[in-house]
Amino acid sequence: SGLSQEAGSVEQLSLHCAEGSLEWLYPTGALRLRLAPRLPPTTAAIKGGSPRHITACVKPTGTFRGAQLYLEREGVLELLLPEAPRPRARCFSWLPQEKVALFLQATPHPDISRRIAAFRYELRGDWLARPALPATSLGACRPCNDTEILMAICTSDFVIRGSIRSVSNDAELQESIIGVSAARIHRQKFPLFQAGGRSGRPMGSIRTPLRCGVKPGPGTFLFTGWLHFGEAWLSCAPRYRDFQRIYEGAQRARQNPCEFPVD
């Protein structure tokens, strides 16, 4: 709470967890949040190679008021979230040797009415296979190539075989929401898809950037992707018959990175 801070003071905090949230009541002065995720040694650098980037994302709550959030990189401030921002995630990356922090600065107001500057954050050490801003095929609006598809089935947070029920667009958040009916759940780290509706099939939704222009279409797909602030985001989604061909070809060549049930 800012009620325990003096105007103009800067309180220092460290964020070590992979994900979490911060809620600042009655913002006063500033908070400096050092980003220091506890990473396995292998994610900080590749022996004999280049150091890997660390990626963080922040997403404000719909009631974010009373402060502005900046990224502090090597002493230079960059505005991430203005006061009363849209509830959209902002992501950024840095190298392990760089010094970065989040600087949450209270904005002056003539009254002392209740304001809350609250946001969620995710810190990841190895996002080489994941887009900094979730999208189809590593951040680009294009179909995944064969290698990306084979890696996606091995490493994604969810792998769902199913069909598209609907596509709706959210112009404010610049997101498309794909309604999916699942024929088989190969993997899901959290219960994103649950049984419901007349068909009894598990249903769920997957998001992708609006600019990708996703359209509803017939057929069976293999949806893969990542969890981002508790929501499913699309990575690769080949037609299932195309995936079967790709996987069986890799299996014959002994180049499949993991075993996957194909029928």
UniProtKB/TrEMBL annotation:
| PANTHER family referenced in this protein's UniProt entry, alphabetically | METEORIN (PTHR28593:SF2), METEORIN-LIKE PROTEIN (PTHR28593)
Q: Which UniProt keywords apply?
A: Disulfide bond, Secreted, Signal
* One GO cellular component term: extracellular space
- Kindly list the organism's lineage: Eukaryota, Metazoa, Chordata, Craniata, Vertebrata
Which organism is this protein's natural source? Tachuris rubrigastra
| Chief location | secreted
Q: Which GO terms describe its biological process?
A: glial cell differentiation; positive regulation of axonogenesis
As for family, the record states: Belongs to the meteorin family.
Q: Know the name of this protein?
A: METRN protein
Citing just one GO molecular function, the answer is:
hormone activity
Q: What are the subcellular locations of this protein? A: Secreted
